[in-house]
């Protein structure tokens, strides 16, 4: 049994035993489609380098638009610290090395969190009649995650892509390290995260660029200035007026 099979079994993901079964289940999966209907559920991915300001901007977007903010990194850290988790040690090592945790784990955590939020219901705007809106922060970081999530969980509507220089990001993260308690907010881990971002996450941005779903936002100015630009894009998206890539 491989580590991915073990993960799949523990998280209740079907792990095909034979080629025949695999072909069958692929056929069934293809017929099933995504778990959530993108006509009702709006998924906005939030990407950018480590320290670009994704989490900071998400917090503000939640307040204005009533999004549910799901940070993939936070979900992984919670799973890492969950008593009895079989994956705690594995997640810890991946995060320390700035590597991407196998997608089965992250996608299942996201799907579970989305389902729980929808079942719980929310009083905010955008949450009536089975509708919902999610900001998925720091995800997808790798092509396999992007394809799998769009196909099996929910087709995403937009990528908010915050950009700034490595110099700015490093400075912000070292400052954040004074209080964050994050094991990857140190110079060695940060450098590794920068490399993974360039090599593994940039192709994801390219993928969504080709699909005309990217809003690129300069994340260098003040938090409020950056927010204005992101909020304008989101306003247009929710009003059904957004068409194509945007640079703000
Ligand atoms: N526009 C900004 N100007 C100055 N500081 C900022 C700005 N945006 C965020 N920060 C600060 O930079 C640090 C990193 O921001 P944040 O945690 O939002 O980044 P992130 O992209 O979510 O990072 P990570 O991917 O590592 O989780 C925080 O301490 C935050 O307060
Ligand atoms: O889809 C994902 C998202 C994150 N990770 C791991 O978590 C850390 C921290 O992520 P933040 O978004 O900065 O909180 C990241 O470096 C990865 O190691 C992941 O594996 N998959």
Which descriptors would you attach to this protein?
binds adenosine-5'-triphosphate; globular; 10 helices; 248 residues; alpha/beta; 6 strands; binds ligand LLZGTKA7; single chain
Unreliable runs, pLDDT <50, ≥5 residues?
Answer: 12-19
Question: Between the first and last Cα atoms, what is the distance in angstroms?
Answer: 48 Å
- Summarize the helix and strand pattern as letters: HHEHEHHHEHEHHEHE
What does the radius of gyration come to?
18 Å
The set of bound ligands, ions and cofactors reads: adenosine-5'-triphosphate, the ligand O=c1ccn([C@@H]2O[C@H](COP(=O)(O)O)[C@@H](O)[C@H]2O)c(=O)[nH]1
Structural class: alpha/beta
Give the strand content. Answer: 5-15%
What strand order characterises the main sheet? 2-3-1-4-5-6
Largest sheet composition: 6 strands, parallel
**What is the count of β-strands?**
6
Shape: globular
Which whole number gives the mean pLDDT? 91
Q: Give the number of helices.
A: 10
Helix content, binned percent: 55-70%
Written overview of the protein:
By secondary structure, this protein is an alpha/beta fold. The chain has ten helices and six strands, in the order ααβαβαααβαβααβαβ. Helix 10 links the parallel strand 5 and strand 6. The longest helix has 24 residues. The radius of gyration is 18 Å and the shape is globular. The site of the ligand O=c1ccn([C@@H]2O[C@H](COP(=O)(O)O)[C@@H](O)[C@H]2O)c(=O)[nH]1 has 18 residues, from helix 4 and helix 5. This is UMP-CMP kinase. Keywords: Kinase, Transferase.
Topology:
Layout: H1 3-10, H2 19-32, E1 41-48, H3 54-65, E2 68-71, H4 72-81, H5 88-96, H6 103-120, E3 132-137, H7 143-153, E4 158-163, H8 166-180, H9 187-210, E5 214-218, H10 223-238, E6 246-247
